[in-house]
Specification:
Order of helices and strands: HHHEEEHHHHHH
Radius of gyration: 17 Å
Number of strands: 3
Distance between the termini: 31 Å
Strand content: 5-15%
Oligomer: single chain
Number of domains: 1
CATH architecture: Orthogonal Bundle
Number of helices: 9
Shape: globular
């Protein structure tokens, strides 16, 4: 069930929908949600990133900022590396500063920008979690195992991870048909 009035699961976006949404979002929100998508991050983790968390081709999500309270680091893909290079990031401090330069952007500010962009282009059911769900579903459809995805997200329970994935009825039908030739 798609998300409606903040209830249900966040929509899984296609590559075309992601491209349109990223084009519609202004900076710094565009980069924020691109990081969420490329690293399967929660928005609450990404808004707290510091410049020092981007090191040696990886993004470090500090334990104190993650839901599981475990540090995780994610490789920076070539497309994300280019986005980060083009963004002209600050040399220190918050990557996504809030109104007060000493504090990070709030998740509420990020959510508001996302909802405005989605309303503008007519996307329904999208939330800040759509980027995480979209990447995980894309990886799963590409054949990566749940254990591999679990390594990326650091979900403690593989059952909770499985609920993130969007599986169409047609996919399930095709899977059964492929087994029986």
């Amino acid at each position: 069930m798609p998300k409606v009035n903040r209830n249900g699961q966040a929509a899984v976006l296609t590559d075309d929908q992601l491209a349109e949404l990223f084009e519609t979002l202004d900076q710094p929100h565009r980069l924020l949600f691109q990081i969420c998508y490329h690293t399967a991050a929660r928005v609450g983790e990404a808004v707290q990133l510091q410049r020092s968390d981007i090191i040696n081709g990886r993004i470090l999500y500090r334990a104190k900022n993650t839901k599981t309270k475990k540090t995780r680091d994610v490789i920076i893909s070539p497309p994300l590396a280019q986005l980060l290079l083009d963004a002209n990031l600050p040399q220190q401090g918050c990557i996504f500063p809030g109104r007060n330069a000493n504090e990070h952007m709030t998740t509420q500010a990020a959510d508001l920008a996302l909802r405005k962009a989605c309303d503008y282009i007519g996307l329904k059911g999208v939330s800040t979690h759509s980027f995480r769900r979209s990447l995980l579903t894309k990886l799963h459809r590409a054949g990566y195992s749940l254990r591999t995805l679990q390594q990326i997200t650091q979900h403690q329970d593989i059952g909770n991870l499985a609920r993130y994935l969007d599986v169409e009825k047609e996919e399930a039908d095709q899977a059964l048909l492929s087994v029986w030739g």
